[in-house]
């Protein structure tokens, strides 16, 4: 009860800050609706300002500028940063290595045209991992992503993505992805909110498939969204020798899931979105509802429906971009989950809303999650025209999984809190290190992108 009261007070304390940009204010245009020219120019200046030709170094630099000026290497095509990688996951332990980040400039556009971020890591269980990442920015909105990864043990990935929130100069949004992934980090703890760390079993999840989403503009800031996805899943032996294998601890589940299963899912969503940027928002509101369906015999091995409601709100204090309060809430309910493999059910963990625990920590027929962050930007750092913002972000996560909506109980909410450190590379890349803590101890996460 004490934790729930603290969370509610934290949420309520943040709400007054949001009055400068109230929810569902249809009088304020965004880049997704026909904006007036002055606002459009202001947005463009915000995005490209850090990328323009370098100015003379000011007489007095802040700490961040001094620090980054020492570790950034100026090259003809663009600045190069050599970053050490050090993180530790709940499932695989410490991981360390190096990640060079090279921002390639387009002198004609006076902007970054792409970011190259390969990495070389070492982990006790996965051994050496080589990863290639390349982000392409044809303009201030479009994004192409290529990512490939190979580990000496189990882990593999090939990921391709295209995203355009203004397809062919219109307000139509398009996102397309292809992914082949063997995830050696996967763990299973059982189903339900009362599982314990001692229930853990290691396994590798093989996943191959594609999806695309098309969002059609309706009334101002209102969109109708259609998503098609097709994936094939299969479990295999995991890489962690000190943890029981899925096939040994849950033999009945492994017998079912170790055979490849097909999932074709179609989702229809209706959402409102007046946020000011598709990837790095600082203002506005997103609210949406969706229904997804899979049908046995229609290129799928299972029949089920999934219903989701999600809300995001970004409150920019006095519109100065120094303090942005980010709120997020989601509830998801799967009908027919009794016949579905655990890996296709709603999940709560590291990348799905509760950062203090590992991916896959909680699995259920549904989930509810709330998050709040205070994204504090003490400096904008145009070091060699590379970094534009540096953020410190305290956060609070809370959530639980459930069998049915009637099973939601206050005492079963799990809490996590911590601090994120972020570098925002405009126009569309966010490098994040999250230090989270919860009932089961700490978790350190290195990833790309905002959590919401």
Plain-language structure description:
The two termini are 27 Å apart. The protein is globular. By secondary structure, it is mostly beta strands. The strands form two sheets. The protein has a 21-stranded antiparallel β-sheet that branches. 10% of the residues lie in helices and 49% in strands. It has a single domain (2-448), classed as Porin. The chain has helices at residues 2-14, 37-48, 63-71, 246-249, 251-257, and strands spanning 72-73, 80-89, 93-106, 111-116, 119-123, 127-136, 143-151, 156-164, 173-183, 187-188, 201-217, 222-237, 261-273, 284-294, 304-316, 323-335, 347-348, 362-363, 366-379, 389-402, 414-425, 429-438, 441-448.
Outline:
With 452 residues, the protein is mainly β. It is built from five helices and 23 strands.
Task: Looking at this protein, list some descriptive labels.
mainly beta, 10% helix, disordered N terminus, single chain, 452 residues, Porin, globular
Secondary structure layout plus pairing:
Elements: H1 2-14, H2 37-48, H3 63-71, E1 72-73, E2 80-89, E3 93-106, E4 111-116, E5 119-123, E6 127-136, E7 143-151, E8 156-164, E9 173-183, E10 187-188, E11 201-217, E12 222-237, H4 246-249, H5 251-257, E13 261-273, E14 284-294, E15 304-316, E16 323-335, E17 347-348, E18 362-363, E19 366-379, E20 389-402, E21 414-425, E22 429-438, E23 441-448
Antiparallel strand pairs: 1-2, 2-3, 3-4, 3-5, 4-6, 5-6, 6-7, 7-8, 8-9, 9-11, 10-11, 11-12, 12-13, 13-14, 14-15, 15-16, 16-19, 17-18, 19-20, 20-21, 21-22, 22-23
């Amino acid at each position: 009860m004490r934790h729930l009261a603290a969370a509610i007070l934290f949420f309520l304390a943040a709400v007054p800050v949001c009055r400068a940009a109230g929810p569902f204010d249809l009088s304020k245009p965004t880049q997704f609706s026909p904006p007036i020219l002055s606002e459009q120019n202001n947005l463009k200046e915000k995005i490209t300002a850090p990328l323009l030709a370098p100015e003379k170094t000011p007489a007095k630099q802040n700490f961040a500028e001094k620090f980054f000026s020492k570790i950034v290497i100026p090259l003809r095509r663009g600045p190069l940063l050599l970053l050490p990688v050090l993180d530790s996951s709940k499932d695989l332990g410490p991981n360390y290595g190096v990640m060079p980040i090279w921002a390639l400039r387009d002198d004609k556009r006076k902007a970054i045209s792409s970011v190259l971020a390969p990495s070389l890591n070492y982990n006790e269980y996965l051994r050496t991992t080589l990863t290639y990442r390349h982000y392409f920015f044809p303009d201030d909105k479009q994004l192409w992503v290529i990512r490939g990864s190979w580990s000496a043990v189990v882990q593999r990935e090939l990921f391709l993505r295209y995203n355009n929130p203004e397809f062919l100069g219109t307000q139509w949004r398009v996102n397309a992805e292809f992914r082949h992934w063997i995830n050696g980090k996967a763990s299973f703890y059982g189903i339900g909110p009362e599982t314990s760390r001692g229930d853990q079993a290691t396994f590798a999840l093989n996943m191959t498939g594609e999806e695309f989403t098309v969002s059609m503009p309706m009334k101002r800031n209102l969109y109708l969204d259609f998503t098609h996805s097709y994936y094939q899943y299969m479990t295999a032996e995991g890489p962690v020798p000190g943890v029981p294998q899925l096939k040994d601890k849950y033999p009945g589940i492994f017998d079912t899931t170790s055979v490849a299963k097909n999932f074709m899912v179609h989702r229809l969503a209706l959402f409102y979105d007046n946020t000011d940027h598709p990837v790095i928002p600082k203002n506005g509101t997103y609210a949406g509802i969706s229904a997804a369906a899979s049908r046995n015999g229609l290129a799928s091995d299972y029949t089920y429906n999934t219903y989701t409601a999600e809300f995001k709100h970004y409150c920019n204090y006095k519109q100065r971009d120094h303090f942005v309060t980010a709120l997020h809430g989601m509830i998801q309910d799967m009908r027919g989950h009794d016949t579905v493999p655990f890996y296709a059910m709603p999940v709560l963990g590291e990348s799905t809303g509760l950062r203090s625990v590992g991916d896959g920590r909680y699995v259920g027929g549904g989930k509810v999650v709330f998050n709040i962050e205070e994204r504090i930007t003490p400096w904008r750092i145009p070091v060699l025209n590379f970094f534009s913002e540096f953020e410190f972000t305290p956060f609070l996560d809370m959530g639980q999984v459930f069998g049915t909506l009637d099973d939601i109980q206050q005492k079963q909410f799990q809490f996590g809190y911590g601090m994120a450190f972020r570098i925002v590379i405009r126009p569309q890349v966010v490098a994040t290190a999250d230090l989270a803590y919860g009932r089961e101890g700490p978790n350190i996460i290195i990833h790309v992108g905002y959590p919401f």
